[in-house]
Each structure stands twice: as structure tokens, then as C-alpha cells.
Amino acid sequence: MSTTARDTRRDEEQAGTAGGVRLETTSALGPWATLRRGVRISPQLLDGLALTVLLAVVAAGGRVVVPIAVQQTVDTGILAPGGPDTGRVGLLVAGAALFLLVAGGASALVNIRLFRASESGLAELRTRAFRHVHDLSSLTQNTERRGSLVSRVTSDVDTISLFVQWGGIMLLVSVLQIGVATALMLVYSWQLTLVVWASFLPLVLVLRPAQRRVSAAYAQVRVRVGAMLGAISESVVGAETIRAYGVGARTQRTVDRAVRATRDAMVRAQTRVALVFSSGVLVANAVLAAVVVVGTLLGVDDGLTVGQLLAFLFLVQLFTGPVQMATEILNELQNALAGWRRVIGVIDTEAEVTDRPGAVDSPRGPAAFGLRDVSYAYPGGPLVLRDVDLDLPLRAKVAVVGKTGSGKTTLAKLLTRMADPVHGRVELDGVDLRDVRLRSLRQRVVLVPQEGFLFDGTLAENVAYGARGTWDDDDARDRDVARAFADLGLADWLEALPGGLHADVGQRGERLSAGERQLVALARAHLADADYLVLDEATSAVDPATEVRIARALDQLTAGRGTLTIAHRLSTAEAADLVVVVDAGRVVQTGPHAELLGQDGPYAAMHAAWLSQTR
After folding, report:
1. Strands 397-402 and 562-566, how do they pair?
2. Is the pLDDT of residue 351 over 80?
3. How does the average pLDDT of the chain come out, rounded?
4. Phi/psi at 581 (nearest 5 deg)?
5. What are the pLDDT digits (tens) for 137-154?
6. Predicted confidence (pLDDT) per residue in 530-586, tens digit
7. Chain centroid to CA 37: how far?
């Protein structure tokens, strides 16, 4: 086999092992497995469950006291052997009213306890899912639209909340109500009880396959809702671009399609639920008719009293009510299960970049990097970095240059461990990055992106966001932030900015220019006080004064510490201690600017082309 063929085959094998986990669209867990898994994630849902169930029993008992009171009032009060016994009737009514008050109080306590437990459990679920989203790599996050991803920890959890706080209460009380009603019906007439259960048995047998179809329909609903939120959020974030290119109508059609798809999915799910509900109503009415007919015959032949028959009819209503309600509960349950599976899908998605067992903290101080036979491929794609061997010395200013798509940004991701190589190792002070705790690594190595992301808030809050410590008060924070700007030679710019440290930067920093956002990002990096900086050089067009400020701030920021800059302008490479030339995923040249300029290679050709364009 030729060398080229061997290299190609090895590249394919390494690419095949590349990381990149796709975010789960849904979990394959069944209903009970989903509930068990959800409770393990949020054990607060079961807090005080024993007392809650006891109170629910009392609440359910309040619903059956009326049939018993009716039977006793009719048989032993109104139809008493010696004539109506008004005293007994009054006593029975008063006793029933008292028990109903107790049952009502128990029902209120059940609601309050379930609300508290559910909110605590769902808060834990949101927190854990949100935390895990941040543990996932950007590649995994990008397998799903941001709006759809956000929906997994917002609207999907809301569906669980709705079920637990409404459907869960109804399910708990209904199950107890059916059990108590069945027990009392057996006391009055086992024959009529058999009639009731025999009438509902076919419906019970139909419910299981119907549940699977409803579950599938609601799983599709949650997917469609996520896609709709993704389309809407994308159009809101990209509103300026949409207006600039005059594609509002096209964007509206895209959003409309997502809305219609969500509507159609919901209609399909609700239609299936409605069919089950109609079946329940039909069976419930048939049961009442059967009980009246059979009960009348039993009253003639077996001595079933009028009061007992009336009580039994009340009990049948108590029995059939929850069965009919079960269709609505089924509706909310399947919607909640679909949402629960999507949230569980986030939590169960494997985080690609994690601390290895036995990972250690990396001691602070000047940092040196080494790459040993490093290769990397994005999920499902070819190798974008191949066989990279590179040493980045202590305190050296390194510039990485190369054509677009050559692998410069990928190299920066590996140094900051936003991704792990599929082959080889990246070392910090001789230690494999995978053996360094991520928290320690983030303290020592900071990435300053091409355009720093600013959060909605004040300038001071955004700069302080990257700081390692905390402050006792806002005044202390503001003093340190102002000092950071002064250290970078930006005090005059800060003073000229309306509002100064308290200026509102707006969402994504939209109230500042691109160059000003970069200045804020540099101040944030300065306050982070890292040992090593990885910078993606800004290429946004800025005015000359801002360009000078950025250059001056960078000089101050990088002084005395090692830096790697993804250089888009060769003037940056000219000032670097070491230039690394990347071409088609390989490091093809390394050395000082003057040395590389004297060689007949890609850097000299690149520099000559750049000079010709600047003249």
C-alpha cells in the first residue's frame, strides 16, 4: 500500500472516531421508566409523599360520604319503620357536612403540599438541565436550534409542572376515589359491582394502545413546539439582517410553516384524546343505564333497598367521573411525559469535554503549551488538523496565520479545551489537558473571541463577569473595573463614554460599536488575570482611533504573559515572537517573522501578497 493511501486510510479511521454527540430529540424511555427517571433526577417531588397520600385518602373519603349519607338518610331516616325520623335525618346531614368540611381542608392541604413539592422538584430539574447544557460542547449544542434547546428547560418543564400540579392531584385523588367507590359498591351489591367493572373492562383494554398513539402524538407536539420557538427566536435575533435584505416575507413564511406544523401536531394529538374521551362518556352512560335496570331487578328479587340503590348510583357517578377524567389526565400526562423525555434527553446527552478521573489542578504561573501528534475532525467530517507537533514557549507571543479554513480556529479550540483531539495530546506545562481540571484550566487560559459577547446590563457588570473573585459591594467592583480600563490605557475612552461604567450596553452589546465591544472584552480578559491568552483577532472595520486603542490595550494585556493570536492581519505576525503557518490542517512553517520571510515558502508568498494589497 502506498504512503498516500495509508495516510488517507488513517485519516478516515481517525475521523470516524471523532467526537460530537448529537443532542437527543427524545428519550426512548417508556411511561413508567420516564417517571422513575424523572423522580431520581428530582427527588423533591416525593417530599412528604406519605402524609400527602394520607390527606388524599381523607379528601377521597369526603367524596363517598354523600352516597353513604343518602343511603342512611333514606333507609333509616325518611323510610324508618315508624315513619320519618327527623332527628336522625338532621344528625346524618350534620355529620356529613362536618366530614365534608374536614375533607375539603384535607384537599386544600394536598394541593398546597403537591405544589410545594412539584415546584422544588421542577426547579431542581431546570437547574440540572441548564447546568448540563453549559457542560455540552458548542458542537453538541449546535445540533439543535437555540430556541428549541431553550424550550427544553422552559416550556417542556412547564408541561411537567402543569401535569404534576393539576393532573397529578387529579390522578392521585381519582385512583383513591375509584378504589373507595369500588369497596363501597361491593358492600351494597357485588352483582352490580361486577356489572360496572365488566362494562368498563373493554375501555381499559383499549386505553393501552390508545395511550401509545397519544404518547407518540404528543412527542411530535413537543418537537414541533421546539422547532417553532427556534424559528421565532432566530427571526427575532436576525431582525436587522432580515430588514437589510428585505426578506421579511420569506422569513414570515418560514415562521408560518413552523406555527402551522405545531398547530397540526396539536390538533392530531387532541383528536386522539377526544376519541378516547368520547368512548369514556359513552361507556359511563351505558353503565348508568345498566345499573338502573339490573339494580331494579335486584331490588325486586334480592331485597336491595331504595337507599342502597340510590347510594349505588351516586357511587357509580364517583366511579365513572374519574374514568372520564382519565382522558383529560391522559392528555396532560402524555404531554408531560413527552416534555420530560426531552429534558431527560438533555441530561442524558454525554458531555464530550469533562474532567478525567484523577484530574488535578494546574498551578498558576507562566504557561507553556505543547501539541504532540495532534489530529482533529468535526463530527462526520474529515480531519481538519493533521499530525500537529508544536511547542509554544513561556511568555512567547505566537501568531497563527493561514488561509480561511486552514485550521487556525480549531487549533485555538484545542488549546482552550473547547474540544479534545481525536488523536495525540495537547499539553499544558507538560501535562495532558485532559488530566487538568476544567475549572483550573479556565482560570489559567482564557479565550478572547473575535467579537466579545456582551450581556444585557451595564458596562461594569459585563467587565466584572470574567473576574475570578467577588466584591463586597458595587463600589469596590467599580473601582477594580475602572482600574482595568486604566491599566489598558482606556481611561480616556471610558470617561468619554456617556454613562461611563454604568452605561447600559443593551442586548448583545448593541448600544456599543463593534470596536467598543472589543475594548470591553479586553478589559474583561484583563480582570480575569489569566496566565495564557488565546485571542481571535478582530477583523471588524473600526475607525482609526479605536484601532489604535485596541492595539494599545492588546500590548498592555499581553505584556508578560504567553499569548496565541489567530492573526488575520500580517502586521500582527510581524510583531510576534513566533509565527505558526497552517495550511490545509497541517503546520507547514514555524519561526520568527524575519526568518520565515527569508525562506521560499508559504509565509513569504502570503506576506508579499499582503504588502501588494496595502500599497
Report:
1. parallel
2. no
3. 80
4. -100, 120
5. 777 776 666 666 777 777
6. 899 998 876 555 677 777 888 888 888 888 899 999 988 888 888 889 999 999 889
7. 16
Per DSSP, the three-state class of 577 is coil
14 confidence band (pLDDT: 50, 70, 90): very low
C-alpha cell read off for 429: 506545562
Q: Which helix (H) or strand (E) holds 532?
A: strand 532-536
Cα(75)–Cα(386) distance, rounded to whole angstroms? 92
Task: List, in sequence order, every residue forming a beta bridge with 582; answer none if it has no partner.
Answer: 402, 587
Residue with cell 426531552: 342
**Do residues 519 and 493 touch, judged by C-beta distance below 8 A?**
yes
Q: Which residue has the cell 426512548?
A: 28
Give the N- to C-terminal CA distance of the chain in Å, as an integer. 50
Question: What backbone torsions phi and psi does residue 235 show, to the nearest 5 degrees?
Answer: -70, -30
* Alpha-carbon span 369 to 208, nearest angstrom: 60
Average pLDDT over residues 302-310: 73
482 pLDDT above the threshold of 50:
yes
Residues contacting 221, CB < 8 A, separation 6+: 262, 265, 266, 269, 335, 338
CA distances in angstroms from 393 to 103, 414, 561, 577, listed in the order given: 76, 17, 11, 10
Please provide residue 371's backbone torsions phi and psi, each rounded to the nearest 5 degrees.
-115, 125
Residues ≥6 apart with Cβ < 8 Å to 46: 39, 117
In 382-483, which ranges are E strands? 383-392, 397-402, 423-428, 431-432, 445-448
Burial of 83 (0-12, 13-18, 19+ CB in 10 A): exposed
Cβ-based neighbour number of residue 466 at 10 Å: 19
The C-alpha atoms of residue 508 and residue 242 are separated, in whole angstroms, by: 17
What phi-psi label fits residue 30: left (phi over 0), alpha (psi between -120 and 50 degrees) or beta? beta
Q: How confident is the model at residue 415 (pLDDT cuts 50, 70, 90)?
A: very high
SS3 536: strand
Q: Report how far residue 297's alpha carbon sits from residue 303's, in angstroms, rounded to the nearest whole number.
A: 9
> Phi/psi at 96 (nearest 5 deg)?
-65, -40
Q: Decide: 564 and 535 in contact? Cβ < 8 Å.
A: yes
Q: How far apart are CA 401 and CA 564, in angstroms?
A: 11
Q: Name the DSSP letter for residue 540.
A: S
* 420 has pLDDT over 80: yes
Nearest to 370 by CA among 407, 409, 446, 421: 421
Tell me how far apart the alpha carbons of residues 124 and 90 are, in angstroms, rounded to a whole number.
51
Short-list 501, 346, 363, 329, CA closest to 437: 363
Q: What does the pLDDT look like over 18-55, one tens digit per residue? A: 445 566 555 567 777 888 888 888 888 888 888 888 88
Residue 379 has pLDDT above 70, yes or no: yes
Which residue, 318, 321, 320, is CA-closest to 180? 318
What CA–CA distance (Å, rounded) separates 552 from 572? 13
Look up residue 501 and give its DSSP letter: G
Helix axes 544-558, 514-528, angle to 10 degrees: 10
Contact assessment for residue 401 and residue 606, using Cβ atoms and an 8 Å cutoff: yes
For residue 519, the one-letter residue type is L
Q: Which three cell numbers stand for residue 214?
A: 397519544
Give the pLDDT confidence score for residue 16 in this predicted structure. Answer: 40
Residue whose C-alpha cell reads 367507590 in the numeric block: 181
* Cβ atoms 219, 27 nearer than 8 A: no
Cell of 611: 504588502
Q: Which three cell numbers stand for residue 212?
A: 401509545
